[in-house]
Amino acid sequence: MSSLRFLVIALAALVIAPSSGSAQATPPLARLFPHRATIDAPPGLVRLSPPAEVLLEARADLSDVRVLDRDDREVPFLVDRGERPVPQDAPREALAPVLDATREAMRVRGVTQVREVLTIETPSAPPVGATWVLRVSTARSRFVTRARLVWTQAPEGERDVARGALFRIGAPAREKLEIATSGLGRGRVRVELEGEDGYLEPTFVWLAVRDEPRASTLDVPLAITGTRHERGRTIVIAARPAGVTPERIVIGTRTASFVRRVDVTAIDAAHGRLAIASGTALRVPGVPGADERSLDVAAARGDRLEITIDDGDSPPLDALEITAVVRAPSLVFEGDRAAMLRFGGGRVRAPSYDLQRLFGTTFGEELLDRRLTGTATLGTIEREPGFVAGPALEVAMRAGARIDDRTYEHVATLTIPETRDGLAHVVLPADVLSAARTDLADLRIVDGDGAQRGYLLGDTAAPLDVALTARALDRGELEEGWSRVALDAPVERIAASAIELVTSAGFVEREVVIVGRGEDDTEIELARTWVSRTPGEDARPLVVTTRATRVRSLELRVHDGDEAPLAIESAIARVHTFDLFVTAPAGEYRVLAGAPDASAPRYEIQRARELVLAVRAGDASIGAVTRNPAWRGPGLFDRAGGETFVVWAVLILAVIVLAAVTLRVARSAPEPEREG
Length: 676
What we know:
- This is DUF3999 family protein.
- Keywords: Membrane, Signal, Transmembrane, Transmembrane helix.
- By secondary structure, the protein is mainly beta.
- The chain has 5 domains: about 30-85 and about 330-385, no CATH class; about 95-210, Jelly Rolls (Sandwich); about 220-325, Sandwich (Jelly Rolls), CATH 2.60.120; about 400-460 and about 580-625, no CATH class; about 465-575, Jelly Rolls.
- It has 7 helices and 46 strands.
C-alpha cells in the first residue's frame, strides 16, 4: 500500500512540475519597489538621467533606486550629482614657507601703519580645473589688513594675481583668512600686507579649490495644499515630496509687476519649523535684469514648505505657482547588463557599491567626464504588480519551533521597535560575543512563549571598541628588563584583532608582547612587535595588531631595558562583530547563548538573504548579558561524556561477571577428601 501511494505522489509531481515551473515567479526585489521602468542602453559605461517622475517617487538620496539585470540581480551604479571636488588622490594643499621677509612701520596722520613684504613659492600646478587659494595663519587675535599678491616670475615680468582684505574681528566673531588667485603659475609670489593693527608675522598654506560647477537641474512643480491671507500677507503651504530637495524656490504668477519679500519655512512634524530662505522676489517689465523670482534655499526637511509673501497693501499675486529647482542626479552603470530600473517605496537600505568609491578620485573624474560610452534611456514608468504594500517580510515574522531554554547559560533582553517591514537590526555587543560560541551557532532569539524567531547574521560590522583597564603587575618569572601589565576586559572572553595602548610617553621604542589565557588556561602569544613614537609626534595610541583568538585574559609585556616601565594609562581592544537582522513584531525578546552542544539554526529568512539585506531595518537594542535563571547546566553524564560512561560500564560489568564466575567455580569445586 505504501509503495502504491509513493508511486502516485511521484507521478503527480511529474505532472505538476512543468506547469509550476513555467509560471514566472515574482522576483524577490519586486516586492520592495512600487514602480519600474525598462532601461535601454548601449554597451559600456553609460549615464542615465532619471526624469522628475522618478525623483518624485524616490528618496532624496536615491537609496530606494536599483538598477537590475534580466535576472533581477543588482547592477552596481555610481550617483553623479554634478559635484567635482578636488580628487582625494590629488594634492589639495601645500605648505608655503617664507623665503624672505621685510617689515616697516610709519606714522601717517598720527596713526602707525605697518607693511610686511614676504616672498613665498607656488607649488606645482594645481589639479585640473582647480586654482590655488592662499590661506593665512597668524596668532594676532584682531586685525584688518589689505593684501596684494604679485607673481614675480610671470612671462611678462610681474603680474598681480590677487587683491583683497583679510581680517579677524569680534562682536560678532568673523574672519576672512583666504584669498583666491587668478592666472598664477609656477614660481615665486610676493605677498604685501598693509594695516594698522601691527605685524601679522603670518604663515601660509596653498589650498587647491574648485568653483562649484553649475549642475543640470530639473523644475518640479509643488502641489499647493493650502492658501490663506492675513494682515497683508499671503501664506502658502506646498507639499514637498520626499525625493525633492530644492536648491531654489521659484515664484510663478500672472501678476505683471511686483516687488515682494518672501520667507520660506520647512515644516517637519518631528523637528518643528526651520527657516530655509528669505529674500525678495520681483518683476518689473521693461527693465533689463528685473525678473528675479527665485530664492536659494537651505536643505529642507519635513513634507511641507510654508511660503510667506509680504503683500503689504497690494493685492495678492495672481495665479500663484511654486516650483522647486532640484539638482538632477544621474546614474552611471554598465549598459550591457542593465535591463530594469526599480524605484520608490522608501523601504530599502542605501546600497554600498564599489563603483561609488571611485567618486572623488582622479580615475573617477576621468571616467565621469571623458570615458562614458553613451546615454541610457527609460521606457514607460509603470506600477510593479509584484509590489507588496504591507510589511515586506511579513511571511517571515511568524514564530518558529520552541526550544528548551534550560540548555543556554546566558540571556539578554532584545527590544524591537515598530518597523515598517518587520525587520529589526542590531550590532552584536561584546558581552553577547563573549557568551556565545565563536561560530555563533548557539545564538537564539526567542519570544515570551519560548518560540524561536528567525534571524540572519549580516556581514562583519564595524569593529567594536572595548575599553580595557590597565593594571601593573610584578615581573614574575620574566627576565630582568621586562614589565607586565594586565589588560582587564569587561567581558569574560574576548577576541581582539588589535589593541590600542594609551600612554603619555613622548618617546617610545620598545618591544612588546601580548599574551592571553585560553579556555584551558594555557598561555597563547597573540602578538610580538615593536611600538614607537618620536618626539613631537601626535600622542596617538600605540596600535598592536593581534591574532583574533578568544582568550579569558590579556596581558601586555614590555621590554623596557634599563628604562623605567612604560606607563600604560588605558587600552582599547578592537573586536570584530556582526550585524544581526531579526524578523519579528515589536516587543521584548530574549537572546540566548552559551549552549556548547547546540547545532546551527536553519531559518527561512536565511534563504532570502538578498531580500532581507535590501530592506530598511529598524534599530533594535540589546541589554546586558546575565546568567540564565532557567539554566540547569550539564549533568554528570554530560560532564563525564558518553564514551567515559560506556568504558566504566564495561569495566564494572566485567568485574561483576568475573566475580560471579569466580564464585560459581569456587562453589562447584569438589571438597578435598579427608585422610584416614
